[in-house]
Amino acid sequence: MATIIPLADVDPALVEQVLDTAFEPERHTRTAYRLREGTEWLQALSFAALDDDDMLAGTIQCWPVALTDPTGRAHPLIMVGPVAVLPHAQGLGYGQALMTASLTVIDPRAPLPQVLIGDPEYYGRFFGFSAAHTAGWTLPGPWAPERLLCRTANPAVLPQEGMLGPWRG
Fold first, then answer.
1. Which of 35, 63, 107, 129 is the most exposed place for a label (fewest CB within 10 A)?
2. What is the dihedral of CA 35, 129, 132, 63, to 10 degrees?
3. Which domains does the chain have, with CATH numbers?
4. What is the pTM of this model?
């Protein structure tokens, strides 16, 4: 069973090791990294999973991003991820536990829409993410449109078109 702790309680070097192991050091060239350039991860929404031996098994970070519509207005969103689980711990529920921890902390009275780049079947089935509202969005680099997913209680707040990038507000 995973023990979930605040990511801020983990040595940043260990977090980087988990990310490098889960995604390879080339991860910094991915479009997802460009979406959060110059921002700091949201400590209240970011967690680590420890295994039964209290060893780091996985992490999740959430980031402030914005969708800038064609008029130049920035609409704040929460970017969920990366969700990183060490290879030996994958398939054991750590990723689900980390996602659940992050999404549960989001204030239900005024939740910002959440966005991620990931497997639509997995994130849709377990967490309600969908590409239904992201078809007109663009990103600052290559991406597979079917993997750009959003989760929101009120889709009417989402612009149909815009450029996703770091939150500068």
1. 107
2. -20
3. 3-166 (3.40.630.30)
4. 0.93
Q: What DSSP assignment string belongs to 1-51? A: --EEEEGGGS-HHHHHHHHHHHH-GGGGGSHHHHHTTT----GGG-EEEE-
**Phi, psi angle pair for 63, to nearest 5°:** -135, 150
Per-residue pLDDT of the chain (169 residues; tens, 9 = 90+): 789 999 999 999 999 999 999 988 788 788 998 999 999 999 999 999 999 999 999 999 999 999 999 999 999 999 999 999 999 999 999 999 999 999 999 987 778 999 999 999 999 999 999 999 999 999 999 999 999 999 998 898 899 999 999 998 7
